[in-house]
Amino acid sequence: MKRRIMIKYLTILIPFVFLYINSYSQTEEWIVPKEKKEVVSTFNFTDENIKSGESLYQKNCLSCHGNPTKGNFAPLQPSPGDPASEKFQNQSDGSMFYKITEGRVLMPQFKNILSEKERWEVVAFIRSFNKNYVQPALAKIDEFKGDAVNIEIIFDKENRQLIAKAIGTVKEKIEPVKKAEMVLFAKRYFGNMQIDESKRTNEEGMAFFRLPEELPGNDSGYVEFIVRLNESSFGDIQKTALIHAGLPKNMEKLTDQRAMWNITRKAPVWLLISYFGGVLFVWSFIVYILLQLYKLRKIGSEVTNNE
Amino acid sequence: MSEIKNEYIKLDKSAEQITTDLMRPVNLSIGFKAWMAFLIISLAVCIYAYTIQLNIGLGVTGLRDYVSWGMYIANFVFFVAASLIGMLIGAVLGLIGIKWITPLVRIAEIIAVAFAAVAGLVIISDMGRPERLPYVLMYGRIQSPILWDVTVVTTYLVMSLLLYFLPLIPDLAIGKDKLQGVPKIHKIIYNILSLNWVGSEEQIKIIHKSVRILLILIIPVAFAIHTVTSWLFAVTPRAGWDSTIFGPYFLSGAFVAGSAAVIIAMFFFQKNYKLKDYITDFHFDKMGKLLFLVSIVYFYFNLNEFLVPGYKLKQADAIHLQALFNGNWAKLFWATQIFGLILPLILLLFRKMRKAFPILIISIFVIAGAWLKRYIIVVPTQEHPYLPIQNVPDYFMGYTPTLIETAITAASIILVLIIITILSKFFPVIPIWETVHENKTDQKS
After folding, report:
1. ipTM attached to this prediction
2. Cα distances (Å, whole numbers) of residue A264 to A268, B149, B225
3. Minimal Cα distance from B219: which residue of A?
4. Which among A19, A224, B11, B92 has most CB atoms closer than 10 A?
5. Which CATH superfamily is domain B2-439 in?
6. Which site among B136, B156, B195, B227 would you substitute to test the A interface, given the most A Cβ atoms closer than 10 Å to its Cβ?
7. d(C-alpha B396, C-alpha B53), whole Å
8. Smallest CA–CA separation between B197 and chain A, in Å?
């Protein structure tokens, strides 16, 4: 009997213990995989990078992290912290980049929101508060033999798939970009939503993405797609296209109908009738009485004249 | 020389005597001149305060982001409230045939006109850019209670003016020959405004019919003016304002403030205009009973307004009520409720307390309480917004009216007194024609 109760209690307790440990580790430590720590930028941090990093920071990070060096970050748990603080600056560029990319708990994932270059620019901005910072040697880039890479997006309506074709120019000869990773996103209000999995291009430089059946589009059914070539050796390449591949989103606007919150022209009929009806009713009597007063005066003048 | 008969005072006086008595205060006495000089100098000082606000902006007041309605709006609500008494005495009591109100009707109507006229100006004083007032009509939304408020206050003012003016026409005709020691312009104004009144049957019929229409019509309009004023608050979901009984709550409170204002005015006119035979202890007793009636109704609404949310204690209400009952508003809240409502209620039960002087003192407490009550309704709610107050200096959290603000509020009260003084000094304050007429019919019967 006792044992059964014990087991019962333990089965209830154990998940909580794990939950506790889990949340503890989440709030206290953010472990970055070793190989990610060592990742370095592919370009030198210039003033220009820092500047665009700053504007990206203002837009995406400021609300929680506050102004660097001011320590006015939001009082959240786990604490966002001040990016100019020692704790932040003591980590490697790779760690910062990883954390921005992957996110955790309240820290959003930026891998679908900011491009790789943009994420590095944010790092550059954060580093600009550290006088002792010396940028480590740049990552080696496998030199691309071609001049330019272009991505062509084709919508295959029959099979409901999107075909992305990457073409590079090598020695003035057009060649497909083979075995490169491609990711497809649909643009949303905040950031981008990944569609299907990331794919590798085939021998013809093509990747095929299956589109969901009920993809919501704008009011005429268009969806803005973004295809990103996730191969740093080609640099930062992405292509957007507005394609009629979604369902028209016919959401009625809150201001379409007559409503209390609308402009006067679209005020509820009952209100217009009550207001103008009431005003007209009362003021017609007031006007009537003013006319009566005029009459009263006329009567008086007639009487005095007769006398 | 009078006796109580059929619930009103029958005067043992000839028509000639009554006319002389009631026209006597209409002159430019030294007392009047001194009083007007005092009022105008005070007003000038206060208007100087307003020029400062006009130049610098609303920053000179205690109003900030969170408490953006302060003394001005509380004062506005009080003015609208006080003006409703014209409807209660003239229309409600008049239409059900109560006779003793005859000498009080015009006093009530003067109070209605004065407060309603200045109420609009009080709103303008709360505007940082008063020159944009026409925008309310040009761009205002018909769905906004503020537009309704502007409409009904204007309508009520016009109707109150007519209700003041129409019964005055015969008096002007009677009085224009009796005027003594006044400038010529005074007589000319009487002549023009009396609209060739000769007292013919047709003219009497017109006046009777028009007054009757106005008396009936002013009841819904008066209800509308204060109900809409209460909706300025009640249509928001904020603790302390989010109430379905705000309309009747405001309305009943309005009659309390107005009755007290009439009693104070009655006392003043009785003493200064030597109208002891016309405004008697009998009238004070009756007004005392009326004040008791409206106060007990108001008390009942107070009970509902505070007990029901106080029992449920929804989170936001709890914070608000805590501030009123035990917190930083407790002293003002309980002082207002006890000295402005509960004690007067108890005292008014005694006949001795309904005599002229005691009831004057009670009314002063009631009217002060009524003003403070509006302040308690308007301000504390805004100190407890639903979203946390953040990223603002400490002094944004509360509200303390500044000296300039107080002076501008004082200006509005002075302006009300000036209007009351002028209307009661340039024209007879008790209806002559009706008093004579009623006295005659009574003598016949």
Report:
1. 0.91
2. 9, 16, 21
3. A282
4. B11
5. Formate dehydrogenase/DMSO reductase domain (1.20.1630.10)
6. B195
7. 19
8. 5
